[in-house]
Structure formats: C-alpha cells, structure tokens
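Tutorial handout. Part one gives the primary structure; part two gives the three-dimensional structure as tokens.
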Amino acid sequence: MRQSFQYIALMSATLLLASCGGGGADKAAEGSAAKTEETTTAAAPAAAAPAAATSAAAPTADSTDTLDGTTLASLTPDAAHGKAVFAQCKACHAIEAGKNMVGPSLAGVVGRAAGSIAGFSYSNANKTSGITWSPEKLFQYLEKPARVVPGTKMAFAGLPKAQDRADVIAYLKAPN
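Part two.
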C-alpha cells in the first residue's frame, strides 16, 4: 500500500512539473535556455551556451520590449481565458496571499517590486533586478522569463502567445 502511494505521489509530481512548461518539442528546446542557475550548472555544456546568450540579451528594468514585438496595449485581455492559461502556473504558484509554493504567491503581483515577498527564497538575480511588476513588464517577462531576469530560479520557458500573456495578466489583476 505504501509503495503504491509513493508511486502515485511521484507520478503526480512529475505531471505537475511537466505541465508547467505547457509541453511540446518547441517548448523543450526553449526550456534549455530557461534553466535555473542550479540546473544549468549540472546540465551539459551545450545547454550553457544558450543560457549565456540569453543573459546577453537581457532588457533593462524599465524596458518592456518583447521578442515578438507585440505590446500589451494592442490586445484586448480576457481574464476568463487567463484563468484557464494560469492552470499551468498553479503547479508552482498560488494566487492566495501568503501562500508560497515552489514559486511565490502571485496575489497582488501587479505593482509589486520583484523579489519582495517576505519569507520566500528568491534568486539573487530576481531580488536585485530593480523590476516593478507593471502589467507591461509582466507581459515582457511571461514571454521568456530567463531573458528578462537571467539567473531566475523560475524554470518556465514562457508563454509565446501574446494573447495568452495578456489574458493571464488580466486574471492576476482580478482573480475570481
């Protein structure tokens, strides 16, 4: 019985972590550049080169330029769809205040300084980024987190679809 429970727990954890990236071969390739500092150190040398290239392209804390050239203002957000997209984020994040998981609580994230939740162990890169999470900065960050905060612990490749990013931000502003 105990062995069955351990197997189920292991499989559940594996599925939750796999859902974080959204799946797909393209996401797996992008994921190699989005590894955490610890994972990158242990990874093959081939994965270190894309991570270094990502670091070189890091935007400033005030920049909101995206790789795909879209702007948040050009889209009409749909919070209901954002809630559905956010389902993959729930493996690591909660929207309830004070509920830190693998990642920090995202309650009130819009307008908050990066790395500022007391009691959560942020990467030094995140704590010293100088970023305030405006909707536009979140839009940029969610596209490819490791590009915006090189050295982040967040092992998530990003949301390549601009509409998905806009929708998640609308949901985070007013979760229901």
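Part three, for discussion. Residues 9-55 have pLDDT under 50 and may be disordered. The chain has nine helices and no strands.
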